[in-house]
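Trying the structure run again after the queue cleared.
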Amino acid sequence: MFRLIVREKTHVFLSVNQKDDRGFDPNLHYEFSTVRVMLGRIEENGLHYVDGKFFNDRNVVIEEHLEPGYYVITLEFYWRQHIHQAANISEHINKL
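Done. Tokens:
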């Protein structure tokens, strides 16, 4: 779980990235794992759902226009293999 603070209107890309399958021996049968990524805005009455993805691919991306405020990003992995169980999250922000 991550917290994202948005100080002004923003166009954001959130990307969950897994290692490319070309980096592994083909005989090991590496597969991309399924990832669930959700973005929610923290409000006075609780958490408001903004966007989410549930997919198995090298890169799973959320693209949104966000208003100023506090947000929560949650990640959940369903590992399909035991060869490599790591990923990273990146953000690209364009102020509007």
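The CA atoms of residues 10 and 66 lie 5 Å apart. Worth checking whether this holds up in the mutant runs.
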